[in-house]
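A quick word before the example. In earlier lectures we treated sequence and structure as two separate objects. From today on, think of them as two lines of the same record. Here is G2E3 ligase written that way.
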Amino acid sequence: FLVRDTRRIIQEAAKKHCFVCSKMGATITCWETGCDRSFHLPCASQGECVTQFFGLYRSFCWEHRPQQAVQTRPRQNSTCSICLDTVEDKTSYKTMVCPACQDARFHRHCIQRLALHAGICFHCPCCQNQELFVMEMLTMGIRMSKSPPSWQSDPAVGPSDQRHSRCDASTCLCPGGRKHTEEEGPWKLLLCSSCAAEGTHQHCSSLGNGTNSWECMGC
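And the structure line, produced from the sequence above:
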């Protein structure tokens, strides 16, 4: 039954076009009832889509994605608390705010990189809040690593144990599951060429069989 359902999902996805790049094979569809927008995982960032990498792994298009409800405080200089470059003076897809202190602002790509490197120690870089901050970031589509911080590597753990080994696509189409991998073909597992903290099967992200390099949305 699993193989049959997987084939059906693949066949249905092959008929859907990505609203971002207009190409076929879009495997992700907006969770909002009545919305039929579909997109490829690599196109999500360009289309300002959000995928929640927890619970039901829900995905949303730009129109129906979750919005931060926090009210930003007036600041003389609107700069990212991580890279110190300029950010917008209001919340948006690219500019996010800490829900706890409501003062820390950061680029989406900056907080995503921090989340992957900080792992289980991920918290607001300014007020240090963790519980409220992490839940808000997960809801807004930021992915976290369940590993210890990259700067606290354990010498007792070998390189093979540290290697990420699962597909993080919002919809994994592999009959063998997220941790299944093959040396070649559609179920070859590719790790992000920048952070190596996220992975995807070639087919789950609509990548060609000859693809040997892939970069996750956060990078």
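Notice the following. The radius of gyration is 18 Å. We will return to this example when we discuss secondary structure assignment.
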